[in-house]
Design a protein that fits this description.
Layout (H helix, E strand, L loop, with lengths): L5 E6 L12 E4 L8 E4 L5 H10 L7 E3 L10 E2 L5 H19 L10 H13 L6 E2 L7 E2 L9 H10 L3 E11 L8 E6 L8 E9 L5 E3 H4 E2 L2 E2 L15 E10 L5 E2 L3 E6 L5 E3 L4 E10 L1 H9 L7 H5 L8 H17 L4 E8 L2 H7 L2 H18 L5 E5 L2 E7 L3 H18 L6 E6 L5 H7 L2
Parallel strand pairs: 1-2, 1-3, 3-4, 4-5
Antiparallel strand pairs: 6-7, 8-18, 9-16, 10-11, 10-14, 12-13, 14-15, 16-17, 19-21, 19-22, 20-21
Helix pairs in contact: 3-6, 10-11
Bound molecules: zinc ion (ZN) (3 copies).
One zinc ion binds next to loops.
Length: about 450
């Protein structure tokens, strides 16, 4: 059968120098059709991953013949000879059969996302994080080598319920360049120098002077810096009452140093309490993820799921209760209270024109901008394609100003013309219209 012939793409080795093996044909042309990629020691690995991505051949089986570990490999052996080949032929053909059952995702706008699912599915492996000191993030996913923004994709797929995450580790990130290649140090509490050393503390009985041992040390003697007497006998003249830390730069004395970080990529210093932490996870395919892959398309992300991380988001039921309670309180104490509905008028058009991934990214940015005006005293609920907002202590004019700011900000950060419509309700006079519209 002709289909039994496998085309091997040879990277980093002249194809005509390979021993002929029954059922195999060799090519060096990346644009030819091929079934398996064989990577030899002279291969340019970075270029290989880039080409695999641009040719949409990310799930193609990779044979590693480099003699070194390759991040993205399915099989490895030393020399390309029939004997070695025969050892992997059966599992390799099984992998190819599994890949052949997948729908063609090469023209999907969500190719990267679907590829993450496809690699996990066909390799029957979780998407495992791994330490990698050669990237600023310090962590990557070997199985996804060649896919950019791995972390964003994985979070996106998790938000869609297609992957489930379990914790890998937490890493600190530089506030300036987001790198995680940071040096952690014990630092002076006053000047942040890492030149901090431990000293013992000496107590001179005679004059009651307390100081670090440095101050007493003179040649081979201990001389009190306060009364100039020599300290001879431990326990009689003086004692050592524990240890302290002293900064060699500014001489500050402290019992506990600060913890600080210096970024190895940009040199920025961050204090321990200001530094941000990023959580990294391992991911496994969920049954929905498997379904999405088999159908070749991602589920549409509900409008609500993007916004549910906003502060003050309530269920409709709770929101109505809060709204009515706030209205009573506002009337009794003569406070301001405004009620609004915000709708993305062209959401359907956005859905049609953007890929899912682009739409979700845009909605996420929108949620971020809106969350800047939502305070902890405000309440939000999201129903189908609109967001209902209750702003306490806010006049109608102040709310309109806030919406103007949202519109401006959206225009600067989102290139797509997102059209938001704000509708204000006369919530004081007639709460029924607002509540009624939510049903
Ligand atoms: Zn940095
Ligand atoms: Zn200091
Ligand atoms: Zn003294």
């Amino acid at each position: 059968m002709k289909s039994d012939i496998l085309n091997i793409l040879c990277i980093g080795h002249p194809a005509q120098l390979l021993a002929p093996i029954d059922g195999l044909e060799y090519t060096e042309d990346m644009n030819a059709s091929f079934d398996v990629i064989a990577v030899f020691p002279d291969a340019d690995i970075t270029a290989l991953y880039e080409n695999m991505f641009s040719l949409k051949k990310m799930v193609c089986p990779v044979l590693n013949l480099t003699g070194k570990p390759l991040k993205r490999q399915d099989f490895a052996f030393d020399i390309f000879i029939e004997q070695n080949w025969s050892l992997i032929e059966t599992p390799l053909r099984a992998l190819l059969a599994k890949i052949a059952l997948l729908p063609d995702i090469s023209s999907s706008p969500d190719y990267s996302l679907l590829t993450c699912l496809a690699l996990s599915y066909t390799r029957e492996q979780d998407l495992m994080a791994q330490w990698n000191a050669s990237v600023p993030e310090l962590v990557d996913y070997p199985l996804l080598s060649g896919i950019a923004s791995q972390r964003n994709h994985l979070e996106e797929l998790t938000a869609l319920g297609l992957l489930s995450a379990s914790s890998f580790d937490k890493v600190h990130i530089c506030s300036s360049c987001q790198s995680s290649r940071l040096n952690v140090r014990e630092e002076c509490v006053k000047c942040n120098s890492s030149h901090v050393d431990e000293h013992s503390l000496i107590h001179h009985y005679r004059c009651a002077y307390h100081g670090v041992s440095d101050e007493f040390e003179e040649e081979n003697k201990l001389i009190c810096p306060k009364c100039n007497h020599e300290l001879r006998h431990y326990g009689v003249d003086y004692d050592r009452s524990g240890n302290v830390l002293q900064c060699e730069e500014c001489k500050e004395i402290m019992t506990e140093p600060n913890i600080g970080f210096v970024c190895a990529d940009c040199g920025t210093h961050s204090t321990g309490d200001a530094i941000k932490v990023r959580n990294w996870s391992n991911y496994s395919l969920t049954p929905s993820g498997q379904n999405a892959l088999i159908t070749g398309s991602l589920p549409k992300r509900a409008f609500a799921s993007v916004f549910e991380h906003l502060k003050g988001v309530y269920t409709k039921h709770d929101f109505i209760a809060i709204a009515l309670f706030s209205r009573e309180t506002a009337i009794r104490y003569k406070r301001k209270l405004s009620a609004f509905r915000i709708e993305i008028v062209n959401l359907q058009k956005m859905r049609n024109e953007m890929g899912n991934q682009e739409l979700n990214r845009t909605l996420a940015m929108l949620a971020e901008v809106i969350s800047e005006v939502v305070r902890t005293t405000d309440a939000v609920t999201i129903l189908e394609d609109a967001l209902y907002l209750l702003m306490s202590e806010t006049s109608s004019d102040a709310a309109k100003n806030a919406f103007d700011r949202i519109d401006k900000k959206i225009k600067t950060i989102i290139s797509y013309p997102v059209k938001l419509q704000y509708q204000e309700y006369d919530f004081f006079d007639d709460p029924k219209i607002f509540i009624g519209d939510m049903k």
